[in-house]
Write the structure tokens for this entry.
Amino acid sequence: MEFYLAFILLFPLAGGLCNTLFARLLPRRLSEAVACGAIWASFICALLVFFNFTGPLKVEYASWLTAFDFQAPVTLYLDQLSLSLALMITFVCGLIHLYSIGYMKGDPALARYFALLNIFVFAMLVLVLAENLPLLYLGWEGVGFCSYALIGFWYQEEKNATAGRKAFIVTRIGDIAFGIAMVWMYRLFGTVSITQLNSMASLVPAGIVTGLGILLLIGATGKSAQLPLSVWLPDAMAGPTPVSAQIHAATMVTAGVYLLARMFPLIGASEAVRAAIAVIGGVTAFYAATCACAQRDLKRILAYSTISQIGYMVLGVGAGALTAATFHLLTHAFFKALLFLGAGCVITVLHHQQDIYRMGGLKSRFPAIYWPFLAGALCLAGFPGSGGFFSKDAILGAVFARGGALYGSLFALGLFTALLTAFYTFRMLFVVFHGEADNSRPLSPSSGEWHSHLPPVMTVTLIPLALFGLLGGILDLPEYLGASAFLSGFLGPIPGFAGLVQAVPGDEVSLQIIAAATSIVGLGLAWSRYTGDRRAASLAMEEAGSPRSDFFLYGWYLDHLYHLLLIRPFEWLSRFLWKRIDESGIDGSLDGLARFTARLGGVPAGWSSGRVVTSLFGLAGGVCVVLAYLAWRVLG
Amino acid sequence: MIVPLEHILILAALLFFLGLGGLLAWRTNLIMMLVCIEVMLNAVMLVFVGGSTQWGNADGQIFAIFIMALTSSEVSLALAMVVYLHRRKRTVNTDLFSEMKG
């Protein structure tokens, strides 16, 4: 057991190191095989662990940081939450790795790509399995670094490198808050072990718990791209599409949700923190959904949908429905990976065209892409029966069950967001796949011809994801369907997961009917707008743009706001320090001093003219001085 | 002693500063500068002789005779160098000689 657990981590690390160290020596096939093999081996280890799992397990492998009474050994903690996440991560990332073989065909930097991808998975697994906060932080920073390197993978283009830097810097703001919280917890409790910390909430006043919770929440907003630190994720589309899939589905953005769920027994003790988490999640879900409705870049639609869906998860955590949040995290991983990989196929066949207004009519030509993509869209839109429907509705149901004005309005917001979600999802689907490819809109700027040589591995990997996404609901069916809720039972024993409030079964049915109706209304709206006769008119109108659609297209001008509030003053300050303080102040005064001494040295230098008269004047001057001194002594 | 020491000293000072002034002012001619130096030395000798009469001590007069001997040798040496310098540059203007510059 301990053996398998260690190998879940060691395989991706070994794969990454192998590709790093022998990058140039390995043939492409071997490089791909090593990377994919490492992840699938890791998945098999996770499966073995799952079948041998009897209860929470804490294994110490080695000592790491030790200073006086500060202890942070390499200890892994395996419970139901980390196990289910590890299974999901290795499975989804394994498929993404396979897909990458097709997508990155012909890219010269293949070894670097796979090395980073493997280490990305390793870092995420460390994050999930860590027992103490420093080890978790190691994984946390690891995913931050790998996402930076992968977003800016094609770094020769300035735009991509900038996007990578932006992701790194914005998430760093959250990381600082997390770091402060970690140090503070050590000062308060004298330990950094997560299991011990979680049992200590009652030892400190509620105000301090609130402070810790807010700091952790800031950390989570950075990593999970929640408001106000959400701006990095839409730009993160600069990376290769499988990387986007991995960031959005399995690694990176779910880290914040995981952190909040993991520390919930501690921070959930404060009502204010729970409310703050719920509000951040709910508002982010709404914000991102409105933005997604106006996007015209296929990948940016998906990016905003991720922010929105993560918002639901955070909302679920805030409502105390950790099981529902985890459930949504798992189903979201499947269908978001599916959508991104599908989008990658679309982009490949269209010669890296990402503008949805240039697409259309792909349904008949590429059914192998269309049907899995449709499955993903159904899940994302929460279409009745799909995995996303049950998980999203579990969250909304939990929020509704909390009652009160705050949670009531968050529920209403969440429901409206669900409507928007269904609308933008099907807008994307209909615009890209339905209708006719208009000849006046060439598919690619250069030739306009189809690129039909899609590597089969790219479409084959969509199928298992589509199945898992659609059938993900089976993991945790609601009770009124008579099935046993597997995930609730599995996750139930973890502290904090038992659920604060249980929904009344009658309510649950009516809630699900409302949610289903919402989803179908959204679908209907998109159908009436983007198919048939009205399609051309709608597209032309949207393409023309308007101030209102620009507002949503640029994400409520959040980037511009930050540019105005933070970057502009910072640049001004930098320029002030550079020009005024450094160049004028420090350099100027030193230059002035140097000029003064040079001039001072020039005075006696003039005396060494070599002419007799200079010496004579010196002599006479000296005589005068001596005489003046004597006269002063005698007379004065 | 008819002439008081103060008068002698005032005369010597006048002579000394005349010589010094001439030395500084007349630098276009090296020979005139030597003459001015002689004037200054004579002023000094005058002080020695005056002092010697005042206190009735012969040391001052002996010094004066020494200075005379020294001056004559100095002048002969200096004139030889003046001749040499004149041969080199056909001038005795000291401002034109700056080879001593470091």
